[in-house]
C-alpha cells in the first residue's frame, strides 16, 4: 500500500473499525497467476490481536492453492468519492478521497466444525437486523449437508496491517466546507461525508 505520511492510518483501532464496517473484501493470493475473489470476511477479536474468517467455493480456482501458512492479501475498501477541482476556493487538481485497509496474512484451513461455527456467525451478523431473520441453524439440515462439501473455510492471521484515510488533510477549512456541501448535494448518503467531518472536527 502506498501511504503518504499525512494519510497513513496504521492503528489497529482504525483497521478494526473499517473492516467491521466494510466486511466485503478482495482476497488475493498467488496461484498459477495472481488470483482474486470478492468475499465477506468476519473479524474475530483475540487476546492480543485479531484474526479474519472467511470461506470460498471449492470450484473457485483459488481453492487449489489454499494451504496452511500460504501468504495472502485481503483488501478492505471504505467509502470513496471523486472531488472536483471546481469545489476549491482557488484552482487546484481534482482528486479522489477514500479509505482502505490492507492485511497481509497467513492462511489456516478450518476443520468442518470450525467452518460450521463460522458460517453461523457470518449469517447471524448479516441476518440479525432483518425483519424476519433466517439464521444458518434454521436452514433445513439436508440443505446444509449439501452445501458444506462445496466450500472451504479458513482463518487469516495478520502479518502486517496497513491503513489509509485520504480526506484532504492539508486543506483549509473553507475548502473542506465547500467539499462537504458539494458531497451533500451529489451523494448525500455517502458515508465519506462523516469521515471528512470527523477528520476535520466539523
Characteristic key phrases:
single chain, 202 residues, alpha+beta, seven-stranded antiparallel sheet, elongated
Summarize the structure.
By secondary structure, the protein is α+β, with helices and mostly antiparallel strands. It has 5 helices and 7 strands.
What does this entry look like structurally?
- With 202 residues, the protein is an alpha+beta fold.
- 27% of the residues lie in helices and 35% in strands.
- The chain is built from 5 helices and 7 strands.
- It has helices spanning 12-21, 112-127, 141-147, 173-186, 192-199, and strands at residues 24-30, 34-40, 42-45, 50-57, 71-83, 95-109, 151-166.
- The protein has a 7-stranded antiparallel β-sheet with strand order 2-1-5-6-7-4-3.
- A hairpin with a 3-residue loop joins strand 1 (24-30) and strand 2 (34-40).
- It is elongated, with a radius of gyration of 20 Å.
- It starts with 11 loop residues before the first helix and ends with a helix.
- The mean pLDDT is 95.
Amino acid at each position: 500500500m502506498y501511504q503518504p505520511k499525512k494519510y497513513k492510518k496504521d492503528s489497529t483501532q482504525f483497521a478494526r473499525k473499517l473492516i467491521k464496517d466494510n466486511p466485503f473484501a478482495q482476497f488475493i493470493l498467488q496461484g498459477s497467476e495472481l488470483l482474486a475473489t470478492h468475499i465477506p470476511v468476519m473479524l474475530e477479536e483475540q487476546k492480543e490481536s485479531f484474526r479474519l474468517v472467511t470461506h470460498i467455493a471449492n470450484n473457485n480456482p483459488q481453492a487449489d492453492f489454499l494451504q496452511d501458512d500460504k501468504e495472502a492479501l485481503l483488501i478492505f475498501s471504505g467509502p470513496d468519492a471523486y472531488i472536483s477541482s471546481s469545489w476549491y476556493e482557488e484552482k487546484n487538481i481534482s482528486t479522489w478521497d477514500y479509505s482502505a485497509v490492507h492485511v497481509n496474512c497467513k492462511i489456516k484451513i478450518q476443520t468442518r466444525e470450525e467452518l460450521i461455527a463460522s458460517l453461523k456467525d457470518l449469517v447471524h451478523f448479516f441476518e440479525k437486523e432483518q425483519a424476519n431473520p433466517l439464521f444458518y441453524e434454521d436452514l433445513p439440515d439436508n440443505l446444509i449437508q449439501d452445501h458444506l462439501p462445496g466450500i472451504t473455510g479458513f482463518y487469516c492471521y495478520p502479518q502486517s496491517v496497513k491503513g489509509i484515510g485520504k480526506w484532504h488533510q492539508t486543506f483549509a477549512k473553507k475548502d473542506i466546507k465547500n467539499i462537504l456541501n458539494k458531497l451533500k448535494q451529489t451523494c448525500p448518503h455517502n458515508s465519506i461525508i462523516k469521515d471528512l467531518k470527523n477528520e476535520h472536527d466539523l
